[in-house]
């Protein structure tokens, strides 16, 4: 009967590399007190011996879990495939950034009171907490409010309330980019679509930047902000119905998010209003689906890889210059705003 192959230990690596066992331990816990030459020798010995450090033992010694908990807030009525693709893209950026820092991610979808849980750090299930997801579940954000306001190792995406550590896209700049783009294409009578009265302030920041850039050019925007639907796509359709019923004249639309823009595009097409022939249209979020709309939709795209990096860096590093960071944005110009 064959004997089981003995797994290599840290002592074996230390002997092969000609160093102490404690040096091997410090190499694999990321100590900066080890020279690069010694680190390289230990890594080479570990690879030659097919040695894998015991992460669990290392974490017990350090008091760290090596895990970042990520909560995705959804609406109770949404199935997994109905969650905003933007959230999945942002989650991907967070997971990639966590992996680069040597952390695993624990992901939890939460939508109703019986699911709400955010005490991962307190219960030592994770070293940090990141909260993402829809702004259309106020009960969830109220649950996480005290955690995000009091727990140093927690952070969220967006602007749910004051005194929360957060990262968000540069909404004000995004609004300015939208205005500058429309103005450069000759549009002079724009409309802004999107609810701006909620506690989450991303949409109002986009509107502020939009109006600021227009004002600098002698322009202004009509705002359709009080939208009844709880569905972003439906809000876009509703806004177009309202503009038509009011008989308002306009030549362009800046929608607060891509789903509102896509809903508006459907309603405009149904009414025989040509985009961009009669109305230019621009959204916000950079969803992949916008490239396949008819016509392809101009959009403001946040850098979600950088957003994920900022969220992870901020939640792991105790000392920061401010409570909020901004992820960069860029304008993706497509046919929906093309003139001439």
UniProtKB/TrEMBL annotation:
It holds the Pfam family Peripla_BP_3. It comes from the Bacteria. Residues 12-62 form the HTH lacI-type domain. The keyword Ribonucleoprotein does not apply. The keyword Protease does not apply. Keywords: DNA-binding, Transcription, Transcription regulation. GO terms for molecular function: DNA binding. Coiled coil: none annotated. SMART domains: HTH_LACI (SM00354). Residues 12-52 form the HTH cro/C1-type domain. This is LacI family DNA-binding transcriptional regulator. It comes from Altererythrobacter arenosus.
